[in-house]
Write a structure and sequence with these properties.
It is a single chain. This protein is an alpha+beta fold. The model is unreliable at 46-73 and 98-108 (pLDDT under 50). The chain has one domain (2-196). It has seven helices and five strands. It is 33% helix and 14% strand. The protein has helices at 12-24, 90-96, 110-117, 122-133, 148-155, 163-172, 187-196, and strands at 2-9, 32-37, 75-77, 85-88, 137-144. A hairpin with a 7-residue loop joins strand 3 (75-77) and strand 4.
């Protein structure tokens, strides 16, 4: 049996480091999934075919580095409510309802449904999804039951978001739940979010 562990990060470098930690304890690349906000357009899309579909071979291993940046090689996906994203792996595939997504395609169950199907509570799924919408990077990994504690300890060496605290901050501004029909965040709004949480603006 496996369990899903998930973390939300405010920057790509921390997410990449968490993936390195998972791989260092033997979690296979195919069991790791990444969904990252790309409103700034800072990541190349080597995994996108001419017709806009995400190449089936695109994997989370691409986040481990390369000349194109931390998330170089990830494919563009259309998941309602998240805005421009780059993504790879099983969670991204579940969010678009197939093994391969297409830009402009509709999600079957969307990101919230995919997270709940992976074993997260509705509350967790709502906050994780909103976190990506507001500029974050979501990392999920399937881990054997016997390795869950070790995997949690590995990723917790990297600074991830406290989702309970972040959810409370969202609610202070009137947020109640992730709405895939809400306007997507602009680059400027993402930067305002970063400032709100004491983070350094990207630009």
């Amino acid at each position: 049996m496996t369990k899903t562990i998930t973390r939300l990060f405010d920057n790509y470098a921390d997410a990449a480091e968490a993936i390195r930690e998972l791989e260092s304890i033997g979690v296979p690349r195919d069991d790791i999934s990444v969904i990252a906000n790309n409103v700034h357009g800072e990541h190349v899309h080597e995994g996108v075919t001419e017709g806009g579909a995400v190449a089936a071979g695109t994997s989370a291993g691409a986040v481990l580095g390369g000349a194109g940046g931390v998330l170089a090689g990830l494919g563009m996906l259309a998941i309602p409510g998240l805005g421009p994203i780059v993504a790879a792996g099983w969670l991204a595939a579940a969010a678009v309802g197939a093994g391969v997504g297409a830009v402009g395609g509709a999600a079957a169950g969307g990101i919230v449904g995919a997270l709940k199907h992976a074993g997260h509570s509705d509350e967790e799924a709502q906050i994780y999804s909103e976190g990506v919408r507001r500029g974050g990077v979501l990392l999920s990994a399937k881990v054997n039951d016997a390795e869950v504690a070790r995997a949690n300890a590995a990723v917790d060496t990297v600074g991830s978001v406290d989702i309970a605290a972040r959810g409370a901050r969202y609610r202070e501004s009137g947020w109640t739940r992730f709405d895939e029909n809400a306007p997507v965040y602009s680059a400027e709004e993402v930067e305002q979010e970063r400032v709100r949480y004491g983070l350094t603006p990207r630009y």
